[in-house]
Amino acid sequence: MRTRWLAMVPPPRLGKPWSLETVDLEGLAWYYEKAAPPAGAVGACRRAIEREEPAWWIANHGVDGLEAVKGAGTRFFDRQSAEKKAFAVGAMDRSRGWELYPHHRRYHERFDEEVVAGEQSTREGIIAERFVMGPPDICEGGDSLDPYFSSAWGRVFFERNAWPNDDLREAMTKAYGKMYAASVATVRVLCAALGAPHDALDDLVITRHHSRLQLNHYPTVHFPRGRSPPTRANAHYDTSVVTLLAREPTDDENRRGGLEIRDGDVWRPVPAGGGGGGVLTVQLGSLVEYLTNGRLRGATHRVSLPAASHNRRRLSCAFVLKPDYMAPAAPPPSLAPFVPSSSSSSDHHPVIGLVGRVGWQNHAILAGRHSSSDARAAFKLWKLEMRARRGFPKNVFFSKRSDDDPDLIN
Ligand SMILES: O=C(O)CCC(=O)C(=O)O
Ligand SMILES: [Fe+2]
Fold it and tell me: Any idea where the Fe2OG dioxygenase domain is (predicted)?
């Protein structure tokens, strides 16, 4: 039923590429000195949010070492899937180690074409794969005794990191620290741009965040005769405050095969901006809607398949800033005066850890309220109801394919 109804809705058209604001973070000295963000950065960010753009570029962000991450990551991705599987964690839903989206995993497992072109992953029917790590100070070394980290539910957010080799561990761990600093600096600029104290969200993202760094690999695509493979990443939004993306400079921004952000009823390609690692893309995540009572909206985005003329592998590196999972999914008192007030003052706010699918499902299963088989459908209903209560848009993604399901990604 559901699939048939979705099939009647025409897919959104492709619009012109975004031209985003550049927020100059001026090297982050101000961030490390705990000073206010530069006025120029705040002004550029304010222009972006006044135009309701869910993304912008950041320059002079202090992030380096991503070439080492890509080099070590590529050496891992180019191994056979039988070897990579040893670094999968849980059911590939813990944001650790080697992961594939569930429908991509099914495609890969059923794939039996004879393919000669492309990388090892192309030949094994892999559409997209990623390698993911959580906060190294918590997710490595001895187990914490604090139940915040070590309880059965806490482990869902603080699963152990899994490393295939020291090269990848060293490169990603260094990049993690730099990306984290640039993300928190970005959030401080954002708070100032909303007219609030720049540290209004610090309590949520400093001591108890569970952010992750992930290297995404989209191999050269094999197009089987008469069938099209699933797209590189279905429409979704990230369960984050902000996501920082390092993307390769490409010449195919108008030809697909890259990141697109939805704007009304069109998908608009997002140019990598500057390139050479000089500029990162910032996207707003879904949590920012809860933290600002809908003043800001998360970016609905996807990664499309390339045109034949641009069919080559693509790498991107994402830092997903995830706040304290036990904090209410509502504006903290430091931000509340600067964002719209809630439609209902008696509204009960879930904690942040319940907003995303994996956190909610595991909570429901641990509490014995759902089996793993019915938890996903129950989450969907709960999410729609929670968003509706706050007056947030539904974020229904229209697609012909029943496996084009955003909740498979969040
Ligand atoms: O590869 C990209 O440009 C975007 C990746 C993405 O959306 C994600 O990792 O959540
Ligand atoms: Fe994403």
Answer: 208-323
In which domain, by residue range, is 231 found?
A: 14-326
Q: What percent of the chain has pLDDT over 90?
A: 71
The reported pTM is 0.93
> Does residue 245's CB lie within 6 angstroms of at least one atom of ligand 1?
yes
Residue range 340-354, pLDDT digits in tens: 987 655 567 899 999
- pLDDT tens, position by position, 217-243: 999 999 988 888 999 999 999 999 999
Establish if 383 belongs to a structural domain: no
Is residue 233 within 6 Å of ligand 1 at its C-beta?
Answer: yes
Split into its structural domains, the chain has a count of: 1
**Choice from 316, 358, 407 to test ligand 1 binding pocket (greatest atom count within 8 A of CB):** 316
Is the Cα dihedral 359, 363, 365, 370 positive or negative? negative
CATH of the domain at 235: 2.60.120.330
Phi first, then psi: give them for residue 193, nearest 5 degrees. Answer: -65, -25
Which of 208, 173, 189, 157 has its CA nearest to residue 65? 173
Calculated CA dihedral for residues 183, 189, 195, 201, nearest 10 degrees: 30
**What ipTM was assigned to the predicted interfaces of this complex?**
0.99
* Distance (Å, whole) CA 279 – CA 243: 14
Is 392 in contact with 398 (CB distance < 8 Å)?
A: no
Average pLDDT on 247-262 reads 75
- CA 303 to centroid of ligand 1, rounded, Å: 7
Residue nearest to atom 9 of ligand 1 (CA): 318
262 or 144: which carries more pLDDT confidence?
262
